[in-house]
Write a structure and sequence with these properties.
Blueprint: H1 3-10, E1 19-21, E2 29-31, E3 35-37, E4 43-45, E5 57-60, E6 64-67, H2 68-75, E7 90-92, E8 97-99, H3 103-106, E9 109-110, E10 115-117, E11 122-126, H4 132-138, H5 142-149, H6 163-167, E12 171-173, H7 176-221, E13 229-231, E14 239-241, E15 245-248, H8 249-252, E16 253-257, E17 272-276, E18 279-284, E19 289-290, E20 293-297, E21 306-309, E22 312-315, E23 319-324, H9 330-339, H10 356-360, E24 363-366, H11 369-412, H12 425-428
Parallel strand pairs: 17-22
Antiparallel strand pairs: 1-2, 3-12, 4-11, 5-6, 7-10, 8-9, 8-11, 13-14, 15-24, 16-23, 17-18, 19-22, 20-21, 20-23
Helix pairs in contact: 4-7, 7-9, 7-11, 9-11
C-alpha cells in the first residue's frame, strides 16, 4: 500500500512522543521505551512426543490451528492421518505457537487446543514477557512475514522453516499492559472490519442471485408480463409464452465438436485463441472458425460451461461449436444453454465429458428472432449494471483488507500510540 493510501487509515491515531532505531530492518523505528531481544529468549521449541489420547491438529493459514477432522469437514476433503507411528507427532498445548510448512507465506499460527501436530511443524512455547494475544497479531503481520522469508533459501527449495529460522529474527519487548491494550484494540478493530467485509461479501452474493433471477426470468418467460402462457412440457422450464416454439436442440442448433490440436501447437501468445472445454487454452497460428459462436465445453472439470467466441479462433476437440440452423440471437442462446446446466449430463469418469448426442435430445424454448435480440439486449444491460456493483463491492473488500493489514502492522510495531485506548463503552457493557 502506498503512503497516500495509508494516510486515511492511520491519520486518526497519534504516534508515540519519541522513537529510536530498533536495529532491526523489519521493525524499523520503535517507541523509546521498547527494546528488542533475541527471539529464543521469548520462545523455546517444544519437543515433546504426542501423548496418549492426543487429537491430531492441522496448522492452516485459512483456519489457524484446528483439529484435523474438523479441517477435513470444512474443506470437504480427506487428509492422511497418522494411525501408526504416532510417536513421531509432537504434543502441543493451548498458548503455544506453531511454525507450519506454510509459515513463510502467512506467518506463525497460534494454538488454542491441546493435541498433537506433524513432526514437520515446530511448536513454540512462550517463556516470558509474552502476551500471546499480542504475538498472535505480530506473527501474522506483513513485515514479520517478510522477515521470515528472508531467513533462508530453504523456502524456495520447498523445505520447511525450522526453529533456527525463527531464532534469526529478534523481537520487540513491549510492556505487558501495553501488549494487552494493543491486542484488545486489534480484536475490536479487526472484528469491525471483518463485519464490514462480510456485509460486502453478502452483497455480492445477493447481486449474483439477482443477476441469475433476472436472466432466468427473461430467457424463459420473456419481457412481456402480460403475455399468454402455455405449459412447455419440460419440467424445469414450466410455463413459457404461448407464441414461443418448444423444440429439441437438434431442430434449432447444429452441434459440432472442434478439431484436435497438439499442445506443441498452442502458445501463450499468438494470432488466434484456442478454445477448449474450459475456455481459452492459449493461442495458435491457424483457425477453424470465423464468426460469432456459442461454445459448449465438452470435456474437463468444467464441461458444460458456456463461452462466446467471436472473429477467427480455433475450437479444439474439447469444445462443441453451436451452429444455429435458423436465425438465433447469440446472447439469448448462450444464456438459455447456461440455464440448462449442461454439466449435469456429464459422464462421471477420470475425465468428465458430455456427448453431443445427449445434448441434442434436450429441449429449448425459442421466441421469434426479434424478441431474442430484445431479451439479449436487456440481459446484457442488467448484467453490466450488476457486475459493476459487484466490482465496486469487491474493491471495497480489498480496501478493507488493506486497512486491516495496515492497522495490524502499525499497532504491533509501535507506529501508533494506543496506551490511552479503551474499549468503547457500548462494547464493554
Amino acid at each position: 500500500m502506498s503512503t497516500m493510501e495509508q494516510m486515511p487509515v492511520l491519520e486518526k491515531y497519534q504516534p508515540y512522543p519519541q522513537y529510536k532505531d530498533s536495529g532491526l530492518g523489519w521493525l524499523g523505528q520503535i517507541p523509546n521505551h521498547w527494546r528488542s531481544i533475541q527471539s529464543r529468549r521469548l520462545f523455546s521449541s517444544r519437543n515433546v512426543k504426542a501423548l496418549v489420547g492426543d487429537r491430531q491438529l492441522a496448522a492452516t493459514q485459512k483456519y489457524g490451528v484446528i483439529f484435523q477432522d474438523i479441517f477435513m469437514d470444512l474443506e470437504g476433503r480427506r487428509v492422511v492421518q497418522v494411525q501408526k507411528g504416532a510417536e513421531i507427532l509432537k504434543h502441543v498445548e493451548p498458548g503455544d505457537f506453531v511454525i507450519s510448512m506454510r509459515s513463510f507465506q502467512g506467518g506463525i499460527e497460534y494454538c488454542g487446543h491441546e493435541g498433537c501436530v506433524s513432526s514437520a511443524y515446530v511448536p513454540l512455547i512462550p517463556i516470558k514477557w509474552v502476551c500471546s494475544d499480542y504475538f498472535k497479531y505480530l506473527f501474522k503481520s506483513a513485515s514479520y512475514i517478510q522477515a521470515l522469508q528472508s531467513t533462508s533459501n530453504l523456502v524456495r527449495d520447498g523445505q520447511a522453516l525450522r526453529f533456527e529460522n525463527f531464532s534469526q529474527i529478534d523481537l520487540p519487548v513491549v510492556p505487558a499492559e501495553e501488549q494487552r491494550t494493543i491486542a484488545a484494540f486489534l480484536d475490536y478493530e479487526t472484528a469491525r472490519i471483518d463485519k464490514l467485509i462480510a456485509r460486502q461479501q453478502r452483497l455480492i452474493e445477493l447481486l449474483k442471485e439477482k443477476r441469475q433471477a433476472v436472466i432466468s426470468h427473461a430467457v424463459t418467460k420473456g419481457l412481456n408480463p402480460d403475455a399468454p402462457m402455455k405449459d412447455s412440457g419440460v419440467e424445469w422450464l414450466g410455463e413459457v409464452p404461448e407464441h414461443w416454439q418448444v423444440a429439441k436442440l437438434s431442430y434449432v442448433l447444429k452441434l459440432k465438436s472442434g478439431d484436435g490440436i497438439t499442445s506443441e501447437d498452442i502458445e501463450p501468445e499468438g494470432s488466434y485463441p484456442v478454445f477448449g472445454g474450459n475456455g481459452v487454452r492459449g493461442y495458435t497460428t491457424k483457425y477453424n472458425c470465423y464468426g460469432d459462436f456459442v461454445l459448449i465445453g465438452r470435456q474437463g472439470a468444467l464441461c458444460g460451461n458456456i463461452n462466446i467466441a467471436k472473429g477467427r479462433f480455433y475450437a479444439s476437440e474439447h469444445a462443441v461449436v453451436v451452429h444455429p440452423q435458423k436465425q438465433c440471437g447469440i446472447t439469448f442462446i448462450s444464456e438459455f444453454l447456461r440455464l440448462m446446466d449442461l454439466g449435469q449430463y456429464s459422464v462421471s469418469a477420470a475425465q468428465p465429458g458430455i456427448s453431443v448426442e445427449r445434448i441434442n435430445m434436450l429441449y429449448i424454448a425459442l421466441p421469434p428472432y426479434a424478441e431474442q435480440v430484445s431479451i439479449g439486449e436487456q440481459v446484457t444491460e442488467v448484467k453490466t449494471k450488476i457486475e459493476l456493483l459487484m466490482m465496486q463491492a469487491s474493491k471495497g473488500i480489498e480496501l478493507l483488507k488493506e486497512r486491516r493489514t495496515a492497522l495490524i502492522s502499525a499497532a504491533v510495531t509501535g507506529k501508533i500510540d494506543l496506551r490511552g485506548w479503551t474499549l468503547p463503552s457500548e462494547v464493554a457493557a
